[in-house]
Every structure is written in C-alpha cells, then in structure tokens.
Amino acid sequence: ATQPAGGSSAGVQIMSEAITRRRVFITGGTGFMGNRLIAALLPRSHEVRALVRKGSEAKLPPGCEVVVGDPLDSASYASRVPPCDTFVQLVGVTHPNPSKATEFRAVDFGSAQAAVKAAVEASVQHFVYVSVAQPAPVMKFYVQVRAECEEMIRASGLDATILRPWYVLGP
Fold first, then answer.
1. Which phi and psi angles does 82 have, rounded to 5°?
2. Separation of alpha carbons 91 and 104, rounded Å
3. Residue 167's Cα: distance from chain center in Å?
4. 47-56, 75-84, 139-148: lowest mean pLDDT where?
C-alpha cells in the first residue's frame, strides 16, 4: 500500500509493505552463510528450524529451533520440515577446490537430493538453493554437480530460487 508523505497527496509516495512471516527450514545452518542467514531472519520474526548433525546443536543462533539429522538422509529429518513454507538448502563442501570432486558428488549432490525429496514431501511453497556461477573453468566438476542439482530442482516441480554467486567470502 502507498500513502502520501507528510499527509499530502502531492508529496513523495512512501511504500509500506506488510512483511509476511515465514517458517523457514534451513540445511547448512551451522555454516558460514546459514548461521548469518538465521541471525538475519530471527529478528524479523520469521520462525526458523535448522538441520544440524548431532553434536553441533550449540552452533546455531539462539531462537532457532534445532532439528538433529543427517543432511544426506531425508528420512532423518523430513518429518520436521512441516509446517515450514520455505526451504533453504545450504549444505555443501567447504572451501571447494578441484581436488574435492568425490566430496562434491557425495555431499553437494547427496544433500541436495535429500533436501528436494524432503521439500516435495512437505509441500513447501518455496525452495532456495545456493549454486555456483557458471561457467567456472577451474572448477568443472563442482560446476557440473551444482548444475545437476539445479536440474533436479527444476524437474521436481518446486517453486524455486537458484542463486549463483561467483564467490562467497568468509572463513
């Protein structure tokens, strides 16, 4: 809705939007991006659940609901996705480099496959996936695996946003 600035109809229009409160399920919540995303969502009154491996519960920001499970096995957490309407898939190999080709297939593809399955089963309204910019000549296998994940997401029928950053700067 718009309203005139200062009560005058001749003034600048100020946009005021009602923020929709989301219920967000995040995989990779203890990682660099996930931890910061959770910390940004909670003060905005979004309800956040994050999947963590056993022993990593304390790494999540306060106020986040902990879901202990295996990101490579949707059966270990799928029942905890509902009633979330948004699913953010952030699990991946840390500090990717060409020597980690086997890990990309096992972790990046495996976790995306499990996440898509869990999201479809939960009928989430929106799926968010952080991929990688393409092409990236040095990282051919990493790009290939991420492109396969993107295709799997498109084939699933989920309403999805796929982000393709060139770099993620951080630890």
1. -65, 145
2. 11
3. 16
4. 139-148
pTM tops 0.70: yes
Question: Using one digit for the tens of pLDDT, what is the confidence trace for 82-122?
Answer: 999 999 999 999 888 889 999 999 999 999 999 999 999 99
Residue 99, class by beta-carbon neighbours within 10 Å (0-12 exposed, 13-18 middle, 19+ buried)?
exposed
Distance, in Å, from the CA atom of 91 to the CA atom of 110, rounded to the nearest integer, reads: 10
Q: Return the closest-CA partner of residue 51 out of 36, 72, 32.
A: 72
CA 47 to chain centre: 14
Phi, psi of 165 (to 5 degrees): -75, 150
Alpha helices of 27-169 — where are they, by DSSP H?
32-41, 101-103, 110-122, 140-156
